[in-house]
Amino acid sequence: MATKEIMPDPICLIENLSNGQLAVNPKALAILSGISQRVVVVTIVGPYRTGKSYLMNQLAGQKKGFSLGSTVQAHTKGIWMWCVPHPTKKDHTLVLLDTEGLGDVEKGNPKNDSWNFALAVLLSSTLVYNSMGTINQQAMDQLHYVSELTKHIRTRAGPSLDGVDDSAEFVSFFPDFVWTVRDFTLELNLDGHPITEDEYLENALQLKRETDEEAKLFNLPRRGIRQFFPTHKCFVFVPPTNWKKLKKLEELQESDLETEFLEQEERFCSYIFQYAKTKTTQGDIVINGTRLESLVVTYVETISSGGLPCMENVVLVLAEIENSAAVKKALACYEKLMSQLRFPTNTLQELLDFHAVSESKALEVFMESCFKDEGQKFQKELGNQLLERMNDFCKKNEKMSTDHSWVLIQKIFQPLEEAVMKGTFSKPGGYTLFLQMKQKLKKKYNQEPDKGLQAEETLLKYLRSKEDMEEAILQTDKLLSEKDKEMAVEKAKSKTAEQEAKLLQKVREKNQQMLEQKEKSYQEHVRQLTRKMEEEWQHMLAEQEKAISLKLKVNIDHPQSSNWPFFLFPVEGGLSWFVVRDLGAILQCFTYALVISASQILFSFPQEQTKLVQEGLHNESKQIQVQIHCLQSNCRSSSSKSSCIII
Fold first, then answer.
1. Is the per-residue pLDDT at 265 higher than 70?
2. DSSP assignment of 522-539, as one string?
3. Strand 38-45 to strand 92-99: parallel, antiparallel, or no bridges (unpaired)?
């Protein structure tokens, strides 16, 4: 798709209606549906009138595009979209989403802020939060939308296992988090030492020990950012120019802007272009424009109907659409490959071998696009469709062979029929002459190439149709005695029976070949399905490990705010840290912890934190164990799935 030509300007993607409802713009959806490339979705959120639109215009490589405005009135309403070619990633489209400012006093429905923020998170692969001044408590308070995400997004459709909050799985599909701080005038210095922008953000996200309700509220947005978003990045920007010129920022030349601001802007854009990832959703499903369209529609319809966007349901809806399209794509691939076969083939095996290669390629196309094919519903459908098409090609092959053979027969045996009409064989010894000419023409017919697998059967049918004519010539031949005629008749019958037996054997061979091909098709389906399941298994493990590792990292980095203690296990010569870093270690850790005596476990916390730790230990350990139990169940379920019969 030539996005530069189709989208010279941004377009409203999701509109906030006056009645408080959300509506999707069909024109924007049509644009997304035409993008077959993978998409990198960068969404910017933040308080209104903080310069969000300006940054997005820079990412688009344009001075103008998203409306900037120059008053205290917010300009961007709803969520606006601009699709442009990705400047550094080949075969990718950069989708820029500019959102309505949070906290707009003119907003009709304050709940729209929460939904806009939730949609920004769900749709993007990189989320940019834009604020002014510094990252202080006020800025954190404005980010209460992060802590509210658990109220607006669900991971699973069914109830949580044992009451465990499924928000722990957010990290597996949430975007990377970038905080941009505008009009930053402070020195990046902490305790007398220079720090980086990322260290500045890291310090702002430090958690407190939760000894009272105030500390819990303090930690709420910070823990949300740490636990929900896989990576965190910070950029600070000095004021671009004096406040009078800011009114016409989009009209200013680079020479009118502060050099430091331009350098910061360049670093920000370069980072986004290089590190903003391709959009994926739960299950590591890669999103293109068409899939993004489905996500937008599904999310907005769910919200408008009063429901909560559920990743599991969204993936299933997306799977229905995509898997159906994958079947069509695979069938188109099969048809294209089979069209290269020259008909008619001389043998059935030639066609079946070509079919096998084409089917394998079609299956590869299907497997590349399909996901969440529960019960192999769509693979079965594809298998049935391929079987039907193979049978159709077999019929086509036979018909073309029959038609071609019949044309040859009419041409080659025409002299014989003309001789009969002229009475050439109506004389003594005529029957012998007839047989000689017939044999000569049969030989000529058999020498004709590329007649196909129906050549013999078609010839036999033709000769059967002329049996009465041959019988008449035999009976009128005065040179032959009655005994000779009887012997000739018996010989003809014997020859016919021999040919029919030969044809019957070919029918049996054909049926056997078809059965063998069906078995080969089944085995190919199983082989490719097994490989697909192994890939999905690896993705599932990676997602679970990613989610649990991040949770562990938060607890390790901030033990004073965590309900989960570190374990110190007795080893020879003293105590040793049992540091859990991956899924396998987690499973081993809990297996070990459950079988050893509780008296053997010592906690690494200071004495004054022991009570806090003990209070949260049970719940936190329970949550982690249930997550692991869920993962183990999924693993066993995947491992025990027997390959179903596809065809």
1. yes
2. HHHHHHHHHHHHHHHHHH
3. parallel
